[in-house]
Amino acid sequence: MTPEPNRADLGKDPARVSGMFDQVAANYDRTNSVLSLGQDKLWRMATVKAIDPRPGQKILDLAAGTGASSVVLARSGAEVVAGDFSRGMIAEGKRRHGDIANLTFVEADAMKLPFADDEFDTVTISYGLRNVAEPRIALQEMLRVTKPGGMLVISEFSTPRNPMFRALYRFYNDKILPTVARVVSSNADAYDYLNESIATWPDQQKLSAWIRTAGWVNVAHRDLTFGIVALHRATKPFAEHDANEASRNG
């Protein structure tokens, strides 16, 4: 019997959100490619370039889903941990990519990461931070598990700056995307939630402020596809002095 479609809401209860992603895991990558008009591949390439993975690095890829981005990072020779709080996504990722020696899939809650302090050279999360119940707690957890001098890279839906393009983008999300999702997705209601979560997510400047407040320094971002997505970068300070400086500037 097919389970009742699960739809999360903006309360972002972890059990409901992870259960929703469990139900869309099998077709998730294909659906995203269709709904983004193929832009997801370009966004992934930009994110990987920002991460600049190299052999010997240890990278944590959060909200990794089925591991589409994690695989690209692992091809560099880096040791990659793909973390996600959806067991369905983790299972699908292992099924597809379980034979890659330097790629490990781990069930992980971004607000309580199951990793030691200062463990990773880079932590990255793509299109997942807005699904976390308390994203500012997650940013602090990412700081904790990153080595001093290590990097944070966040790719997330954002706010187009141009008013006309922003209106066109909202029209697509509100009117066209739901119709297409009902054709290509196994759980169209999930994409209604995802659309709502994008609409209510803070803009580039506010997310940058959250990152600084969490203790990161050298915070910067650039827009992709006119601001539909923003790519944020930051560094973990080497010393408490640098962290205090970041707090004053935040």
Automatic annotation (TrEMBL):
EC number(s) stated in the UniProt entry for this protein: 2.1.1.163
Domain of life assignment: Bacteria
Keywords of this entry: Menaquinone biosynthesis, Methyltransferase, S-adenosyl-L-methionine, Transferase
Native organism: Microbacterium mitrae
UniProt binding sites for S-adenosyl-L-methionine: 66, 84, 109-110, 126
Catalysis performed (reactions): a 2-demethylmenaquinol + S-adenosyl-L-methionine = a menaquinol + S-adenosyl-L-homocysteine + H(+)
Name of the protein described by the UniProt record: Demethylmenaquinone methyltransferase
Any GO BP: menaquinone biosynthetic process
